[in-house]
Amino acid sequence: MNKSQQRQATRLLRLAQSGDAASLDTLLASYIGYLKVLSHSQLDPRIRVRLSASDLVQESLLEAHRDFTKFVGTTPAEFTGWLRKILVHNAARAVETHLLAEKRDFRRERPFELLHKAADESHDRLSSMTAAHGRGPASEAEHQDDLTLLSDAIEQLPEEYREVIVLRHVEGLKFTDIAARMDRTAGAARMLWMRAIEKLREAMSDVTHE
């Protein structure tokens, strides 16, 4: 989806709330990349063999489609937050189901409130990257569109590049922690991150010039 197609969030939301089913489908589809990026940090490693980020996103979008009439906001930012809550709820429910099968109490490990807080913090870190890629002041709707474009670009990166960017900019980890997660030295993790950022800049540049 190119930039001219993305600059429709407010209009699509308004049309969807007026009952236009096609606009709702288009609006939800535009959030796939954003939700996938968040899913990489929300999905507990213990259940990734059972539930992929794509599965979690699909489940969340289906739920959003089914319950769209319950959304009471009016702005793209509010809609983004609503989708984020659905994603976190589904991620938490999947982990709880898995841990209950192992006779463990998930709620004692990570209360739902902490999961929501972590998701909001991840969203804020991801949002801050839009300014880091040379974008000037923008309206709320434009910012949401930029966030979607950035997320789509991250999702299109090779797996290792995507992982290091998610760990650094979505989870907010230090390079020493990233190195441990990726089984590399801190120096190698930093070099990988630098290459990933360069590829991401190239991808974003291509999109903004379409």
TrEMBL record:
<dbReference type="Pfam" id="PF08281">
    <property type="entry name" value="Sigma70_r4_2"/>
</dbReference>
<keyword id="KW-0805">Transcription regulation</keyword>
<keyword id="KW-0731">Sigma factor</keyword>
<dbReference type="InterPro" id="IPR013325">
    <property type="entry name" value="RNA_pol_sigma_r2"/>
</dbReference>
<keyword id="KW-0804">Transcription</keyword>
<dbReference type="InterPro" id="IPR013324">
    <property type="entry name" value="RNA_pol_sigma_r3/r4-like"/>
</dbReference>
<keyword id="KW-0238">DNA-binding</keyword>
<protein>
    <submittedName>
        <fullName>Sigma-70 family RNA polymerase sigma factor</fullName>
    </submittedName>
</protein>
<feature type="region of interest" description="Disordered">
    <location>
        <begin position="123"/>
        <end position="144"/>
    </location>
</feature>
<dbReference type="InterPro" id="IPR014284">
    <property type="entry name" value="RNA_pol_sigma-70_dom"/>
</dbReference>
<feature type="domain" description="RNA polymerase sigma factor 70 region 4 type 2">
    <location>
        <begin position="149"/>
        <end position="200"/>
    </location>
</feature>
<dbReference type="InterPro" id="IPR036388">
    <property type="entry name" value="WH-like_DNA-bd_sf"/>
</dbReference>
<dbReference type="InterPro" id="IPR013249">
    <property type="entry name" value="RNA_pol_sigma70_r4_t2"/>
</dbReference>
<dbReference type="InterPro" id="IPR014326">
    <property type="entry name" value="RNA_pol_sigma-70_Plancto"/>
</dbReference>
